[in-house]
Amino acid sequence: MKTIIVTGAAGNLGQAIVKKFLDEGFRVIGTTTNSHTLPFSGNERFESFIVDLTDEERTEKFTDLVIKKYGAIDIAVLTVGGFAMNKITDTPLAGIKKQFKLNFETAYIIGRLVFIQMMKQGSGRIFLTG
Q1: What does the DSSP assignment read for 63-129?
Q2: pLDDT in tens, 5-21
Q3: Which regions of 8-128 does DSSP assign to beta strands (E)?
Q4: Topology (CATH) of 3-128
Q5: Which terminal residue of the chain, N or C, has fewer Cβ atoms less than 10 Å from its own Cβ?
Q6: Domain boundaries in the chain?
Q7: Residue 32: helix, strand or coil by DSSP?
């Protein structure tokens, strides 16, 4: 059975992706930032982890745990992120830095770790949203 990581599993896009893969018979590992009760939490092929993907050390521990438990990461769908709408005239640099950290750094940190594992495995797919 293929193992798929979906970051941002509690978000609207994340939930739709998790549901699609579960419906197709895959094992799905979902990350969240809180202890959300997700509609598929009772599914035996779904496992949820609370992970701060902005923390490289914690993210590495998470990926190491998945690899140790399941042996491989076949697919990673990186949907974690956020959106803040504002005019450029009303957006300080701090707001841009927050969006950069939430959207780019999280994808880079876990994407890099998953890519390293997939290179060792000789296979895998990473999907990014932007």
Answers
A1: HHHHHHHHS---EEEE---------GGG--HHHHHHHHIIIIIHHHHHHHHHHHHHHHHT--EEEE-
A2: 999 999 999 999 999 99
A3: 27-32, 46-50, 75-78, 125-128
A4: Rossmann fold (3.40.50)
A5: C
A6: 3-128
A7: strand
Q: Which two tokens stand for residue 126?
A: 């990473």
Structure tokens given for 3? 């193992």
**All residues at 6 or more sequence positions from 32 whose CB lies less than 8 Å from its CB, including other chains:** 8, 9, 10, 38, 48, 49, 50, 51
For position 37, what pLDDT does the model report? Answer: 76
pLDDT value for 110: 97
Distance, CA of 16 to CA of 20 (rounded, Å): 6
pLDDT digits (tens, 9 = 90+) for 33-81: 887 778 888 899 999 999 999 999 999 999 999 999 999 999 999 998 8
Global confidence as pTM = 0.91
